[in-house]
Specification:
The protein has six helices and no strands. The chain is mainly alpha-helical. The longest helix is centred in the N-terminal third of the chain and has 14 residues. The termini are far apart. The radius of gyration is 15 Å and the shape is globular. The N terminus is likely disordered.
Length: 134
């Protein structure tokens, strides 16, 4: 895992909140009584780990183990952080089109500023297939 130059200031916090709020109503298809890790905790863990440079479930899980006290400043994480296998299982249950298909971004759900959630840049940049409209 390589750490990239972190974003700083209120702009970084604002973008993180936009991301978390955007997926706040993401349905959790897991059986409620069997889900050990709340989806909100998994989203927060993944966001912070990816912002810190994680590129796989193994790196996200390692981040969760090392930074559990930081994570607990925001959410309880009463069962700790999920392992890489558990992260894979959790993401396997989610509808992947929500993360990859621009048509799922209705005007009601579109993030402010029109950010491309797939590549984190604005639509006019044309750097990815989603921004380019391909």
């Amino acid at each position: 895992m390589t750490l990239q130059e972190p974003s700083s200031g209120p702009e970084a916090l604002s973008e993180a909140l936009v991301f978390l709020n955007f997926f706040a109503d993401l349905p959790d298809p897991r059986q409620a009584g069997k889900a050990i890790y709340p989806l909100a905790e998994v989203r927060l863990l993944c966001l912070l780990a990816v912002l810190a440079g994680a590129e796989s479930f193994v790196e996200i899980a390692r981040f969760g183990e090392k930074k559990i006290e930081l994570l607990r400043r925001f959410l309880p994480f009463k069962d700790g952080a999920p392992s890489h296998d558990q992260l894979g299982d959790i993401f396997a249950t989610l509808d992947a089109t929500i993360f990859t298909t621009p048509s799922t971004l209705s005007p009601r759900r579109s993030p402010p500023g029109g950010f491309c959630l797939a590549r984190r840049h604005r639509p006019q940049c044309r750097k990815c297939q989603f921004c380019a409209g391909k």
